[in-house]
């Protein structure tokens, strides 16, 4: 039986770290769905194209491979800007939705299941996932985490601005018309505000064990 674990939540809640560790510990395939749009946009840039061009963006999405998500360049601002351009193209969104569902249904490398993290996995991408977790934390805690992440990368950052950006992004994600950020009705809420990563992982694995 293929196990599908959907992990959703706002930025800097810890869902990515949790998803990677759960996948590793349970020998499941892992997909960071947020990188799909970055990889698509970055692919267009690599061909000297405009990510806003629907034909180019759709072709890039159609040719996307899981290994393309391993490129460290996807973490840079250039890829983020390109992602914002391809993400508004409906045909690209449809193609990447199909990519995510194929990944969940047929995990690569012969894995027995998949862990997908994002913002609409449990509600839109995999509404029938075996386990749904919604990972969250207070806005202030998440802003502190993001600040540290930026500083560790050698970037100048101010807490007040990071906090404002976090609140603005939360509002956009939760209020958008298409696939807004929200917990699925049958998701288990994991508040990581006062937990370290090992405690979160232990709780998540216990929930997955109970439900599968």
Automatic annotation (TrEMBL):
Protein keywords: ATP-binding, Cytoplasm, Kinase, Nucleotide-binding, Transferase
Class in the EC hierarchy, top level: transferase
Pfam families for this protein: Cytidylate_kin (PF02224)
Principal location: cytoplasm
Domain Cytidylate kinase: 5-208
UniProt keyword annotation of Kinase present: yes
InterPro entries in alphabetical order: Cytidylate_kin, Cytidylate_kinase_dom, P-loop_NTPase
Positions of ATP binding: 9-17
GO biological process: pyrimidine nucleotide metabolic process
EC number(s) given by UniProt: 2.7.4.25
Catalytic activity of the protein: CMP + ATP = CDP + ADP; dCMP + ATP = dCDP + ADP
CDD domains linked to this entry: CMPK
ATP-binding is among the record's keywords: yes
Localization terms from the record: Cytoplasm
Family that this chain belongs to: Belongs to the cytidylate kinase family. Type 1 subfamily.
Name of the molecule in the record: Cytidylate kinase
Organism this protein belongs to: Terasakiella brassicae
């Amino acid at each position: 039986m293929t196990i599908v674990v959907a992990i959703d939540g706002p930025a800097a809640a810890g869902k990515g770290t949790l998803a990677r560790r759960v996948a590793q510990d349970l020998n499941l395939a892992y997909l960071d769905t947020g990188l799909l749009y970055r990889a698509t946009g970055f692919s267009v840039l690599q061909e000297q194209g405009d990510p806003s061009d629907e034909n180019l963006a759709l072709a890039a999405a159609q040719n996307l491979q899981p290994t393309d998500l391993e490129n460290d360049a996807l973490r840079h601002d250039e890829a983020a800007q390109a992602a914002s351009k391809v993400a508004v193209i409906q045909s690209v969104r449809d193609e990447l939705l199909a990519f995510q569902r194929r990944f969940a249904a047929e995990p690569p490398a012969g894995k027995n299941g998949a862990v997908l993290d994002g913002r609409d996995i449990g509600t839109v991408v995999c509404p029938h996932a075996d386990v749904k977790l919604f990972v969250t934390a207070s806005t202030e805690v998440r802003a502190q985490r993001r600040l540290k992440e930026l500083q560790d990368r050698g970037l100048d950052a101010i807490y007040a601005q990071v906090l404002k950006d976090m609140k603005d992004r939360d509002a956009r994600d939760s209020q958008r018309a298409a696939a807004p950020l929200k917990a699925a009705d049958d998701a288990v809420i994991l508040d990581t505000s006062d937990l370290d990563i090992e405690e979160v992982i232990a709780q998540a694995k216990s929930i997955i064990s109970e439900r599968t």
